[in-house]
User: Fold these one by one.
Assistant:
Number 1:
Amino acid sequence: MERGGFMIIGIPKEVKVRENRVACTPAGVRYLSDAGHRVLVQSGAGEGSGFSDQAFASAGAEVRPGAGEVWQADMVVKVKEPVETEYGYLRRGLILFTFLHLAADPKLAMHLVEKGVSAIAYETVEENGRLPLLAPMSEIAGKMSIIAGGFYLANHFGGNGTLLCGIPGVLPGKVTILGGGSAGMNAAIVAKGTGARVTILELDQEKMRYLNSVLGSHVQTLFSTKQHIMEELRATDLLVGAVLVPGAAAPKLLDREMLRGMKPGAVFVDISVDQGGCSVTSRPTSHEDPVYKEEGVLHYCVTNMPGAYARTSTEALTGNTLPYLKAIADMGIDNALQSMPGLMKGLNTHEGAVTHKAVARSLGME
């Protein structure tokens, strides 16, 4: 939808369970409104992140009491994918800019296609081989995986009672990380900081060299094969799944037999659960009910981990999404996509079709 440099932008309140983030800060709203765009913010949208309605209004937003008017904007900007209660707002001509993770959500994908929504997914926007909009949330989820995983290792949660940092005379816990991307590296940084023994399993030799140079000798890297994973799991107290194929379903690296080989009460934090998870035992959980036990291993599979640290996450996300958001608003979606190849890679559905190959392949669609 081309608007000649003027666009109405809607920022609704997130409705996913315990999702406290908001898609834009008041500072971001001022940046957009100063550029001549009209920004509608649903009342209460920023409360979970510490931003009041008054802060948004002072920045130039029009605060609206309900979601309906906000969703009528030319472009709706969110944090998480629409849930079923929001499907009724989807319509032809709507630009939707948010995390989508469609490979794990075929029902939403079908609704976006059937309604003709132009949906841009943060997680598939790509610049020079990087995922700039996914990166800050991956960094937070990676760091948080060690905090949450160490917490659930406590006996009263069903963990095996290992303190990751150890104490003099007692060995520290063992952390194994599957994947050495942004989430995996940040998990390793925090795990290393606790004093835990850390191994990252990765396929890319250049990435392993980079990890060694950045993390030093206290973090070991190992070529990722099924045999190596099985050998590492036997001594692992905290396992972190941080594998990613942009837009596609996460590869299933773990089966039940492999999990049965772990210590009883070990903890598995699957960051990749947004994309379906990297274990056959992974299933989505929420911050209200984050863990369950399978094959003696405590699984933490929260699909919106950064939502637990909403202030940090919101500020980090806004700082990265704002240039793309303003480009779409200034130029219209067609011109923005043509002038920004990285943004084009973020387009998942458009005018009744799936437009991202990895997403289509994962969904078995054209």
Number 2:
Amino acid sequence: MVSPTALILVCLLPNPRDMEIARLLGWYRIPFRTAPKVVAVDTLAFYQPASFGAAGGQILYTAPVRGHELTTRAELLRDEPNHPRAREEYFKIQLGALEKLKKPIKAEKWKRITFFYTTGEYLLKAQTLNDLVVAGDERQLLWQSLRDRAENEQLYQTDLPAADLPPEVLLALLGIQDAPGVYSAKKQP
């Protein structure tokens, strides 16, 4: 169940095949070039467009996020090796089990969405997509949470093993500048 404090990414689920991939294989894909700034969220909420027929124009399912990795479309969809975007990078978001909402969240006037952020509290109370929009002082808290997540992601993602990096590079990666007792290139005479 979605926690009221959860950071939620509302995302487009383009077609029923993608729903089956999420349900059976436990992942969702986001093209790297169009991805939102932060994918390290607690939960995905899936917006189903008109391609879902009568079940379109609403959010009916969520899924907890278990992790993410960067890969290619060809690695994700091996049955489409000649797709025009086969070599492009995609985030593969690993998911827990899909959870059906007690009541669907209807689109009403919204017809096109790709991604936007909300919170578990908003999701649990929403009747329409408009109800998911975080406003006022809470919007500042949401953006601060997203910034914190982005900074945490940067701390743990590097292609170089930490042991092979000089201390000043490690400190720079961690965002620590001018630490006492640490040589800094900026302090050279």
Number 3:
Amino acid sequence: MTSRRQFLLLTCGALAAGEAVAQLDPNIAAKREAALRAAIGKITDGKPIRTGKVKLQVPPLIDNGNTVPLAVAVESPMTAENHVKAIHVLTEKNPQPYVLSAHLGPRAGRASLSTRARIADTGRVIAIAQMSDGSFWQDSVSVVVTLSACLEDGLI
């Protein structure tokens, strides 16, 4: 037998859960995909991206998305004629797809970086290298996040 108090708690909980679900945008996946395409388009200006030269290292299983170690290395002699101009890291599931952009030059010596990033949810992490000759190269890694880092604030 359900008491009056239990009934009221269950009813309020069901109404609150329904309200929370109603506030989530049903098109969030499509909006995130569009934001990722727009970010990549802004970086590359519509130029083709080739696979290779870039090596992205991210753990495939992430317990906590708040501090995810990642490293990017690009094959380049780093000379004045042939060097990496920029390295961009993006994710497909963060509210904002940009994770970082690092601008380099031939005096950097080598085209590599390592840092920690916030990753919201299970999906792809993408690294894009912009070369001095105008070409773009990429690598991507699929990751599984068990505890999300970024919360939705109505922003994408």
Number 4:
Amino acid sequence: MLINFKNERKANKYLLNIINALNSAEKVLKLSCSDIEINVSFVSRLQIKKLNKQTRNINKVTDVLSYPTLLSEHAEIIDKKISKKAYPYDINPETGNIVLGDIVVCVPRCLEQSRKYGTTKTREICYLTVHGFLHLLGYDHMVESDKKLMREQEEKILSEISLN
């Protein structure tokens, strides 16, 4: 998996853990294709609020936003269906990888939530990045059964890594 970071300065000390978490996700989910690429951006409270308003018409700060590029006809999880043959128009010509989409993490919100939930900052930022990654694959939490599945996957993925 290729991970492109933007504004990595805002989360510099967490990057290795984030990379480990995303690689763990790839392994745990047994993705059908390893030639994938994602973009991860770290933003301020103001930036994510603006994005949330522009893209979801919700005028408030949130912790993470995901923008998947691979859309299926039905709302379904696509982790086992990713292939260059299935998504020929979503291949980055520079890298040859299938672009899954973008994850935008609000670092200040993440740090607030780590205090609120009694977790480490590292765990919270990794959790939100994995959460965003699962959204890129079609996981959701709008109904209770989907939420349960998504939470189980998040915990399975995070339990596979040692957070520094």
